[in-house]
Each structure stands twice: as C-alpha cells, then as structure tokens.
Amino acid sequence: MCGIVGYAGSKQAAPILLDGLSRLEYRGYDSAGLCVFSEGELKLAKSKGRLAVLRTKTENGATLPGYLGIGHTRWATHGAPSDENAHPQLSTNGSICIVHNGIIENFLPLKEFLLKQGKTFRSETDTEVIANLLEYYYEQENDLMKAVRLTLGRIEGSYALGILCADRPDSMIAVKKDSPLIFGFGEGENFIASDVPAILPYTRSVVYLNDGDMVVFTKNAAQFYDANGTPVRKAPEHIEWEMSAAQKGGYPHFMLKEIYDQPKALRDTINPRIRNGRVVLDDVKLDESYLRGLRRIYMVACGSASYVGNHAKYILERTTRIQVEPVLASEFRYSEPVLGDDTLVIIISQSGETADTLAALREANARGARTLAIVNVVGSAISKAAHDVIYTCAGPEIAVATTKAYSTQLAVIYLLAMYIGEKLGTLAPECYAAMLEGLQRLPDQVAQILVPENLAKIEEAAEAFSHNHDVFFIGRNLDSATCLEGSLKLKEIAYVHSEAYPAGELKHGPISLIEEETLVVALATVEKLFDKTMANVREVKARGAHVLGVTTEDFAGEIEKYADRSLIVPKTHPLLQPSLTVIPLQAFAYYIALARGCDVDMPRNLAKSVTVE
Predict the structure, then answer these.
(1) Average pLDDT over residues 332-356
(2) In this predicted model, which residue has the larger pLDDT, 245 or 375?
C-alpha cells in the first residue's frame, strides 16, 4: 500500500486533495505522493514508501489547521490502471472514503447484493465494494464502529484499510487482516503505513497491528482495539534504522545506493554473530537433541527470497546432511506438505509481511512443524508468528528490486549452516574454519567488485546488450540458483524477457530457443564444473548466441576463449561464492534498465511489500 494521509489546509482544500489524488495517473509501481500546501496551491512531489503521510506545512514550516484528507496510489488488482480505478474509492453517497491494500475474494457477490440495495459503482475495484458495504451498514445502524465491524464480518480476503467518514472529519479508522499495517506516533500528527521507510522521516515510534486490530485516531490521539472490539493499550516500539539509510545520499537511484550498501549490510549481519572464532546465534533455540531428530528442512519464500532458499538446499545439505526442500510460499500450503516435529520450516521474507509467506508459516505451525524466520523487520507479523527468528541487518530497502536484503539473507543461511553443522558434527573443523574465514572476508570482497573500473566494465556490457529482447542465464550447481536471481532482476527493472536454466538442461528443450544474437549469460564459478559449463557455452555459440561469461579470477583467461565478454569476481569458499557472483548481475540489470529508459527504483506492476495473494 502506498499513498498519503493528512490534513488539508482549509475546508475548501479538502475536496481538492481528494479529487486531485484520486486522479493520480497509475504508473505501475509502488510510490507515494508527498503533498505540500502553499497558499492554496497543491504541489505533488514524489516520496518513496507505502502509505506515507501528508505533511501540511506552509513554506515557512508552520503547521496548517485543516480537515482530514486521504489518498494513495497502488497497482491495479481489479480492472485496468485508470483514474476510475485509482484510490481512494468513495461510496455511492460520498460518505465513506477508503484506501485498501490487499484483495477481497468475495467482492462479486457483495457487489451484486449492493446493486440490489441501490448502490452504484464507478470503478472495477474490489475496494469500492468495501466503501459501499460500509456505507450501507452505516445508513442501517447510524453507528460507524458497528458498521465497520459488520463490514469486516462480510468481506473475505486480505486487507489493510484506511477509512474516512464525512461525519467524522477529524478522525480516521484503520484496520488490518493478512496485510501489513503499522501505526506511527508523531507530535500533532499520526500515521499509518505498511512499511517503516514510508514514515521513517517523521517518526521512529510505531506499533505493528495484529490481524483484527483496529485503531481510531486523530492527529493528537489514538485508541486501539483488538479483534473482539475490546479497547487495548499498545506499547510503541522504537525503530533503530539510521535515517540516512532511507535516503539516496547523492546516488541517482535507491537501487544503486543499496547495491553499494551491501558491504556494510553484510558486516552488520555477520560480525555480531561471530565471537571467539565461532558462529553464535543467541536468539535461536535449536539445540543438538532437536537437530539430531530433524529429517527435513523446508525453505519457504517468494521471489528473490525463494532463490535464497534454492541456494540453501546446496549449502545446508552439504554442511548438515539433512534433506532440504525449497518450496514457493504460494504453493506450500496447497501442496499438503508432510510436516511434523521432525521438520523445520525456514521462512524468508524481507518485510516480514509477505502474505503468501505468512500464510505458509501459519500452515506449518498448525501442522506441528518448528518454524524459523529470516526477516529484516523487527516486530513484523512473520517475526512474531515464528518459533525462532534471525534478523538480517540490511536496514530499510527502498528500491523495489531487492539487493542488500537478498545478500544478507544469503549471509544468514551461511551462519545457520555453520551453526547446525558444528552442533551435529557434520562440518569438519577445517571446513568450518575455511568457511568462517571466507565469511568474514565477504564484505571486503563485495566492495572490491564495486570499484569504479569494474562497474564501468559492467555498464559497458549492459550498453552492448541492452537491445536484446531475450536473455538466457545458464549455470550449474550453486551457479544455477544464482542464475534465477540474475534473471529475475532483468525481468523486474528492465522488462526484458529472461529465463534461467541449469546448464545441463539446455539440451532437453531450451536450446531450441537459441538463435542469432540471443544473449546467454553463463555463470561458471564452480571449479569442478567449469569445463562442463564451457561445453554448454560452445553449444549456444554454435547457434549464433552472444555470451556474457561470469567467473572467478582463476578462470579469467579461460572464459575469454569462449565468451564475447566476461565479468570477473573474486574467489571465495565454494559455498559462499553466490554472494560475490550475484553482485555483477545486480549491476548488469541496473545498467540495462537505465539504457532502456526504465524507472529503476519503481518498476511497473510491482510493489515492495507484496501482499496480494
């Protein structure tokens, strides 16, 4: 969810706010508007975040008295991206105004019911159904809180709602179920958001709402209610993130800044968990007796986080000798997974609020498995629901395409693999020592890749291949998992059709798609499989493909014999190599997106906190 909430400068300005923001052109990315009033003029400036705040200030910084207004932009889940389908959505008589993150599964029968009650619809959205249903009950009951409860009892699906009523021009209601919603405390202003970065410039004091929670608030006060409608007190949590982490800091895009943030994010994630030459995970209660009874580990996540799970299969199986099965969160709860007390389900999510991932976590808990969450946000829904939590220390990640969150998730997998491997005695002491040394060197090696001359070479390659409409990533073993993330980055921000395949699978069908000037990105960092990957490179070259090779320093000379261009990364312990291999792929996607004129930070049709199932 993204957008703005706040007070307009005058009673006359409030309709301007509602009207103007409801007509924000949908642009297919997760962004928010920061509105500033100056002598009646409404200015719209971009502000990154999910449901950010309307700061009603004059040019000299004075607070303006006024009336409540609400608006936000979001991707279209129902209907085309258009003015009519943009948020906020108004009820038939204009008494109710709503912004909504999530999806209402039974909106069609509700819409049919409301049409029979004389309600009209201007949009194709499920959100307008909520507004009209709430208005219907408000007209019946003449009690807004009761109308809200009745409405929530009828709708099925996920939602985080911001609700305004014309009869209560100085207050707002917010409620959530299966979609993230936080409340921020300010001075003479209060906020709702679905992600911390949206309100980080304005407050560090927040409450994470649980499912069923409701808050009724004005600019000076807030009353919280639980799922039963009982008033409750909520103790604010303090956000420790540095403000600078949510700003561009002179970089042209957040994504580039966050690529450069990775050495620091890795240090912050790794260093506190290494003490006296050992990996120490204070918050994890996986003792030796439990671990020895484990028969299977599931890795459950969505998007880039799921590719961390693909890497984890190779890494954890080698270090722990326990079977590991990566499963997409969106499929996990529908696959009737075999779970029990001999199963550990590791849940990975940057926000800690991803709807499919949260649902999978709840399914695992209900079926008796132990759950461990790897998340970036303290107090998030996933962190609260899991039995154990390991926090990444990436800080706020603003760009939609993940970089530093992905890298820190990988780092946590290494730490966990060493932790379990040592407890079970499945990781030999010399292997443990080698991994530990490599892990501590990772931040500096990532920084080594990000020196200007290397980025210039990556940018040059991106310029050369920016015209390609079809790209294939190939690699073996851990490289094949890294290919998935490299391919996704091109899809996400450069809108290039891209596929990733284990190199050995080329001959089983995909090679039929290779034609003149198709770009093949070949990852070849696994030493014992280098020659096999080069054999695949020769196959695609024979069919007219251009090849961009990615390998380690040891094979720099060799890969130049086969590839048209090559990108070289430092060598590290084989199980840690993905953390270095992925860096040039992130930068490659970034520079191709620039060359193609794409909006890097806010790609079309995507959002940061993906909450729609």
Answers:
(1) 92
(2) 375
